[in-house]
Amino acid sequence: MRVGRRALTAMCPQCYRGIELADMTIRKPVVQPSMATCGTLVVLTKGSIEAEWILATEELIVHGMISGHTRCWGRVWLGPSARVRGSLRAPQVDIEAGAVIEGALIQIGAFCKSDLNATLDDEICAPEQIQRAISARP
Predict the structure, then answer these.
(1) Cα–Cα distance between 58 and 31 in angstroms, integer?
(2) CB under 8 Å to 58, separation ≥6 — which residues?
(3) How far does Cα 114 stand from its chain's mean position?
(4) 73-109: string of b/e by CB count within 10 Å (b at 16+)?
(5) N or C: which end of the chain has fewer CB within 10 A?
(6) Distance in angstroms between the alpha carbons of the first and the last residue of the chain
(7) Residue 34 forms beta bridges with which residues?
(8) Helices 113-120, 127-135: crossing angle, 10 deg rounding
(9) Residue 31: CB partners within 8 Å, gap ≥ 6?
(10) What are phi and psi of 116, to 5 degrees?
(11) How many degrees, rounded to 5, is the angle at CA 30 between CA 25 and CA 131?
């Protein structure tokens, strides 16, 4: 799959779902089935995300509230006003004093790609497909 250097979105050739390539900033409450980006996802203090799946390939920065199954393949930073509900998986999580985490599963560090792919198969494309879309940019 090839996308242009300035492309902000693309379509997965396997499942035909939209892939967000740009960074996203959430300034107000958002409720939707899933939220995914190949870039950085930033949730500002007055922003919140309520979704079954919240996915960020590069980085997740939270000052507001997120609720759902959250996966990040880069660094997660939880600011002092952050509130996280649900599961969280990431290779690195930085937590500032004051952040609140209410979750059934918090997994930090390297995790099995096959485990993630099995979890995500029915919801969205696997991270390898998303990464290929980014790396294929001319």
Answers:
(1) 22
(2) 23, 38, 39, 40, 73, 74
(3) 18
(4) bebbbbbebbbbbbbbbbeebebeeebeeeeeeeeee
(5) C
(6) 11
(7) 53
(8) 100
(9) 50, 51
(10) -65, -45
(11) 50
Q: Which amino acid is at 86?
A: G
Residue 37 DSSP one-character state = E
pTM confidence score: 0.73
What is the phi/psi pair of residue 66, to 5°?
A: -125, 145
Tokens matching residue 97: 């004093």
- In the block, which residue shows the tokens 């939707």? 32
Q: Report how far apart, in Å, the C-alpha atoms of 74 and of each of 2, 32, 41, 57 are.
A: 23, 23, 11, 6
Q: What is the pLDDT along the chain (138 residues), one digit of tens a residue?
A: 566 666 666 666 556 666 767 788 999 999 998 888 888 999 999 999 999 999 888 899 999 999 999 999 889 999 999 999 999 999 999 999 999 999 777 777 765 444 444 444 444 444 554 555 445 444
